[in-house]
Amino acid sequence: MTDPRVTKWAQVLVDYSLAVQPEQLVVINGTPLAAPLIRAVYRLVLERGAHPVVQVTLPGLAEEFYKTANERQLTFITPDERIGPEQADALLRILSESNTRALTGIDPARQQLAQRARTELRQTYLERAAEGKLNWCVTLYPTEAYAQDAEMSLAEYEEFVLRACLLDREDPVAAWQEQAREQARLIAWLADKREVHVRAPDTDLRLSIAGRRFVSADGRRNFPDGEIFTGPIEDSVEGTIRFSYPSMVQGRRVEDIRLWFEGGRVVKATAARNEEFLHAMLETDEGARYVGEFAFGLNRAITRFTGNILFDEKIGGTLHLAIGAGYPETGSRNRSAVHWDMICDLRHQSEVWIDGQLFMKDGEILI
């Protein structure tokens, strides 16, 4: 990508998303493919008087780790892993994979063993973020692998990413602030509501949001952003939901996922592809069978599925829910080593009723 575009991107990340301040410890994580953006962010963090720590991971190391490590090594948490969740004031993760399917052949049990060992570390990360002690942001640097998943050329994908991030606007920060105002309006309306009822093809789902908080994701957490999310009452989810798009997790593509809930718990799950992996993930721990997040996608600059959850969960007119860990700032009490987002497209033949009022129809907000 050209330098002016990368510089603009870095400026928004450092000054708007992370709001970097002097003397803060700022961790920047990525792969060598994201070197232009890592370098630009690093320079700006220094200029803001903060202390950057760069963590660059080589392609293939994760695959080598899961194939070679013994049980003790799989569960050992290195000081390098701890610095972000436990010590950093700001944490930027730049997704920049060269092969999104590198872990497809790994035994899921080995991945789950490593995940379970990091449950408390993940909870520390979530709690520090909820307390305002850690600003974190996840963005994605375009690579050939992501472009191939999206069925685009690299040049097309670069333009898609810039539009989704509102970086094609003259003033991206002003654009995100406008998005924030609209999301705040919706959250204000939702503040005293209790029950959500979703009806869509092969979907009839009810859940309670009573006493829970919706949080606005407006470019400060994910970049791109554009969603409002909450954590439903853990035992309130009832009914069934069919997810419209394939889900990529741990290098595996799971297609046509359907979940059935009773008392908040997944009691039945099917998938047209990689169903065995879906069942294995649900067995990771008890919290993996409960919903930790329920959200509405509101980014109208993202209109198509790309195979990457960072973008797809923000598609305007969709909802997504995540099985597993919830965000403490929403009031969620669900803990798990898993947080797996799944997307349901509501742009056709769908309705969302909230406390008996039609909130969304065919992907359009009506309130």
From TrEMBL:
- Offer one example of a GO biological process linked to this entry: proteolysis
One Pfam match, given by its short name, reads Peptidase_M29
Q: Which cofactor does it need?
A: Co(2+); Zn(2+); Mg(2+)
Answer whether the UniProt record assigns the keyword ATP-binding to this protein.
Answer: no
On whether Chaperone is a keyword of this UniProt record, the answer is no
Q: Name one GO molecular function term.
A: metallopeptidase activity
Q: What is this protein called?
A: Peptidase M29, aminopeptidase II
Q: Which organism is it from?
A: uncultured prokaryote
